[in-house]
Design brief:
This protein has 392 residues and is α/β, with parallel strands linked by helices. It folds into two domains: 2-68 and 92-163 and 263-345, 3-Layer(bba) Sandwich (FAD/NAD(P)-binding domain); 164-262 and 351-376, D-Amino Acid Oxidase, Chain A, domain 2 (2-Layer Sandwich). Helix content is 34%, strand content 29%. The strands form three sheets. Strands 1, 2, 8, 9, 10, 11 and 17 form a seven-stranded mixed beta sheet that branches. Helix 1 packs parallel to helix 9 (292-312), helix 9 runs antiparallel to helix 10 (319-326) and helix 11 (329-350) crosses helix 12 (354-376). The termini are far apart.
């Protein structure tokens, strides 16, 4: 039997970040994950905006951001015209690189156990974990950070309640220009012209020397469009986004195409002694809304900087202690924003109602005004391709 204060199950972004934070704070912890190195997976592929401040609060930002690629400027386009060229703080990084960079910051006194958690039992005092290698761990607290894997949660009486099945689908792939060395834009966000496209946006951004593409769509996994995309991605993109070629010139999709559907769900029955859920283990977000990293960093920062130190300062790990995390107003506000943004972006992208049509044109006008403001201020130099739209 191994003894520790905190056992973290799951070594993705949430679990690895928590292990690094607790280890740096001198808290006895271990991380349980079967992967020696986290494998490739289509999840978060860039950080920016408020996520950077949240990352800094973990104390892990400096080394993490060194592994990213900053685009510096993003072009925004619709109907084949550039409507804005804006300074950008987007940092591109593949998910496995992000997780492994976090893992590299875990102090040596935090043991990483390469096994699966096979069974869990909990109480208001200590928790027991049985591993796939037949080892056992006794911990004061279990942090369940195993994402979409519901097996352990089910054994504890926790259930997943889907609130929006296949809310969105993310397609991730690399693109490269044909007949020239590079694209004219440092990064590009292309907004759909019509709700019939059933897409939120296409974003192109650099990771190292590669231009990465994330295409966010609202479709069913049985939609023939997805098969068409696999068979002829370039033609399908141009048919879905008329005018895109004006931004990109000739291009080709290189490397594999990964497709990830995303359900929105919440976990029920989570309030139990000795166990706390973070990230996707608690609830999911819509990748198109871009709030997944917000949720992870908020959860882990509040848990490791505020709640775990308070919990460990006294005996026991009963429900009132655990409840303090779920009642944390910062966490609750982040959860509410994430869910609201998921539904708002979907409706703004595909709903045909007058309100949403007005919203789409309002967004177009706002982004155009932003582009004019940045242009007037000299925030960018015009590129060779694309031009500021004066009408739609």
């Amino acid at each position: 039997m191994r003894y520790t204060d905190v056992a973290i199950i799951g070594g993705g972004l949430a679990g690895s970040t928590a292990a690094a934070m607790l280890g740096r704070a001198g808290i006895s912890a271990c991380l349980i994950d079967p992967h020696l190195s986290y494998p490739p997976e289509l999840r978060c592929e860039k950080l920016g905006g408020d996520q950077l401040e949240l990352l800094r609060r973990t104390g892990l930002a400096e080394e993490t951001l060194r592994a990213t690629t900053l685009d510096g400027q993003v072009w925004e386009a619709r109907f084949g015209y550039v409507v804005a060229k804006k300074p950008s703080d987007q940092h591109g990084i593949l998910y496995d690189t992000l997780v492994n960079t976090m893992r590299a910051q875990i102090p040596g006194d935090v043991e990483i156990i390469h096994a699966k958690a096979y069974a869990v039992s909990n109480s208001a005092d200590r928790q027991k974990i049985v591993l796939s290698n037949n080892e056992e761990i006794s911990a004061r607290l279990i942090v369940l950070a195993n994402g979409l894997n519901t097996g352990l949660r089910h054994t504890l009486g926790m259930q997943r309640r889907i609130i929006s099945a296949c809310h969105s689908i993310t397609l991730g792939f690399d693109v490269m220009p044909v007949g020239r060395a590079a694209f004219d834009f440092p990064a590009l966000t292309y907004w759909p012209g019509r709700p019939s496209a059933r897409m939120a946006y296409l974003t192109l951004f650099p990771i190292g020397g590669t231009m990465r593409a994330n295409l966010m769509v609202y479709r069913d996994m049985t939609d023939p469009w997805l098969q068409q995309f696999r068979q002829a991605p370039e033609a399908t993109m141009l048919a879905t986004m008329p005018g895109l070629a004006r931004m990109t010139g000739g291009f080709m999709v290189s490397g594999p195409i990964r497709i990830r559907p995303a359900d929105l769900y919440v976990t029920e029955g989570y309030l139990q002694p000795g166990i706390v859920l973070v990230g996707d283990a608690f609830s999911t977000s819509c990748p198109a809304a871009g709030t997944g990293s917000d949720k992870v960093f908020t959860d882990v920062e509040r848990l490791c900087n505020v709640h775990i130190p308070a919990w460990l300062s006294s005996d026991g790990m009963d429900v009132p202690k655990i409840q303090a995390f779920y009642d944390d107003p910062v966490k609750q506000a982040c959860e509410a924003r994430s869910l609201a943004k998921a539904y708002h972006l979907r409706s703004l992208s595909i709903d045909h109602g007058l309100t949403w049509r007005a919203g789409r044109w309002g967004r177009f006008v706002v982004r155009f005004a932003q582009g004019v403001r940045y242009s007037t201020a000299g925030a960018f130099r015009p590129g060779r391709q694309g031009r500021i739209a004066t009408s739609s």
